[in-house]
Amino acid sequence: MIIGVPKEIKNNENRVALTPAGVSEMKKHGHTVYVQATAGLGSGFGDDEYANAGAVVLGTIEEVYAIAEMIIKVKEPIASEYPLIKKDQLLFTYFHFASSEPLTHAMLEKGAVCLAYETVEKTDRSLPLLVPMSEVAGRMAIQQGAKYLEKPLKGRGILLGGVPGVPPAKVLVLGGGIVGTQAAKMAAGLGAQVTIMDLSLPRLRYLDDIMPANVNTEMSNHYNITKAIATADLIVGAVLIPGAKAPHLITRDMLKLMRPGTVVVDVAVDQGGCIETCTPTTHENPTFIIDDIVHYCVANMPGAVPYTSTLALTNATLPYAVQLANKGWEKACNENKELKKGLNIANGKILYKGVAEAWNLPFNEEIVLANA
Questions:
Q1: 2-127+306-358 classified as CATH 3.40.50.720
Q2: How far is 110 from 184, CA to CA, in rounded Å?
Q3: Which of 165, 178, 231, 352 is most exposed, with the fewest beta carbons within 10 Å of its own?
Q4: So what CATH class is 131-304?
């Protein structure tokens, strides 16, 4: 198969979808890999490393899209890439269709095959291609939140861990999944007083067992959230409903219950956000203020630490990418139910229920895999 790796052009996105080691693995299986010049530079991989691994380095993104049967990316195509996508071209990347109606319609109209990292799902319902970036984002949420609590950045002026004789900051984490768990661990390690909320009692029991003494668990409901936000210094939105929009757990009118300078970090913003006032921001302009509340809503948080993120992501995606290249998407999805769950759009149809529901579009529960 002919594989293309374009340079990511989303604002301050420095990750790359395939490392030189990944190129070498693809070559071992007999595939041809084209990499756009400087695609790996932000992650610390030069063009010469790709060439030495067996890739052909092309000068422009147009050349990569034109020649490739499968495009491997990190983030969803942006508007300037839409015209480059060909009918029946396989795109393997994070899409988050439920947060972008224009992207959904564009991919339907192009007739592309869109296999989304975020909905590849194991039989135990875990999301293997979302986990590594969720781990990074959860830890970064605290790193960024601690920074924006500083007064020059319009925060409350609180040191997350406090000092002897001065209490630490209070951190509220909404959601006890991968993001929430990593955020709570990071905040606890810095000495903050942490509360983590979730709807699942078994999950709360598990978290209560593994977390240090400065982490409390609480059932997630409107009453408890309303009470907690009144004293929280940093709030992390870590809610995920795979492939679907995140619910709004904190609404606009709830902001007035918070103290001025409180920081909210909505990691769920690429799925619509679990804080109503959050809209996607970029690493270039990461925050905005509403009602004296600092909002950090960067949709590609791991892009700020591209070396770590690229290695973590490609460790997870490469085995699936190899299957797709070896067998073609239809046979690979027929034989691997995890990959089949990743099919969001194909043949001009929506194949993932959460995406269809998000935009009130027809849902096709099954697809005929002609070459299976």
A1: yes
A2: 41
A3: 165
A4: alpha beta
